[in-house]
Amino acid sequence: MSPKFAAETEAACPIYLVSPDDLAGWKSGDGAQWADWVTAAGFAGKPGELCLLPTGSSVAGAIFGLGGDAAQSRTRFALAQAVTQLPEGPWRIASDHPVDMLSEQSLAWLLASYRFDRYAAQDKPGAQLVAPKGVDAKRLEAIAAGECLTRDLINTPASDMGPEELEVAAHALAREFGASFDVVQGDGLLEENFPMIHAVGRASPREPRLLDMRWGEHGPRLTLVGKGVCFDTGGLNLKPGRSMGLMKKDMGGAATVLGLARMIMALGLRLRLRVLIPAVENSVSGNSFRPQDVLTSRKGLTVEINNTDAEGRLVLADALAYADEESPDLMVSMATLTGAARVAVGPDLAPFYTNSATAARALAAGGDRARDPVWQMPFHEPYESMIEPDIADLDNAPSGGFAGSITAALFLRRFVEGTQNYVHFDIYGWQPSSAPARPKGGVGQGARALLQALPELLDLSDAT
Length: 464
Hints:
This protein is α/β, with parallel strands linked by helices. The protein has helices at residues 20-28, 35-41, 69-74, 80-83, 99-112, 137-155, 163-176, 188-191, 195-201, 241-244, 252-267, 312-324, 339-345, 357-370, 404-413, 447-457, and strands at 13-18, 50-55, 58-65, 89-93, 127-129, 180-185, 209-215, 221-226, 228-232, 272-282, 294-296, 302-304, 330-335, 350-354, 374-377, 394-395, 422-426, 430-431, 441-442. 34% of the residues lie in helices and 20% in strands. It is elongated, with a radius of gyration of 24 Å. The relative contact order is 0.12.
């Protein structure tokens, strides 16, 4: 169930958010009756500190430490740390803070309520937050619901999240919001001219497919393309066991665009949304595609296969070429595409590529405001020669090991010609260790930044 705010009630206990510099003022003001108690407890406003405030034999409220400016810049969603420590019941943020800060901490509370309980019961926090005045509660609940969908999809193991199951999840989302939904699968991919999606997925008994969802009848056209490799063995260039361990998350791009789509539809944004997901399993069998094969893409460009483990860009290429035939106002691809991106920026930052300075500024600002960190990487054109082999138009895995994320982005860009505004995200989709509001496991990246930036990326002046 998607996390929700508690109903407004006078019974909600206050929680005060303070920094070390705020503490003395709080003790002489709102917290005067608890000043001695807090001092005796040793509370100093350090990041993550929590002190329950008594009234008789029960709890009257709590005070939570934000830390100083340096700590606040290093830790986002800080209030999430308090959620599981607070007694059951409704709570309200009593401190006076800017709306952006209240929105961040309110979203932190909602996201901290997430539990992946498909296979084992999980204790859920009983403390609920009343939405602070001034925050857009509907928007925050929509964002939390989209993020929780993304997490659920990524966290589900491939045994229960293959191409067909991903189709079922996407179709359920389409039905919920009255979107249209089409599928091309199996040998139909060859008949409909999606040869690279078919080539990558044909070795698996779980048929490859292309999912196509459309929603909205008015406004600018936004197309989201998500990599849906439900499990990646590496194909004939088999991954070692250590590298295969997290490959259930290789459909993280698909999960993230579905989460973002859910946010957009729940908020009723005035745009025409299309979501394309090539859903495959990269397996090994007698009909696996091979190193040195040359594939002809939907666009007609030929691709020499120099590593069957660089399959994500192949399925995305056919989907991008298909999307580009409509020349949408904005096209965004999201994929757990390269290890090189992780080496460059680590697991927490979502690198993105665009030729538009306007889009780059909007996404950077959107990421800052939404507390969804992103980082622009370059479409460095001198590297184009690295993806041009001798016997085909393109090379799916240039040798040498340099600039792996950039060359993958340049490869994808070759399949987008009619769309002027194209953004590619090379995300990780996984939280390697627990952090506030982000338990270890699947996580959305870039979706909140995109949602925040959409009014600048597209004309949404009539959006609701």
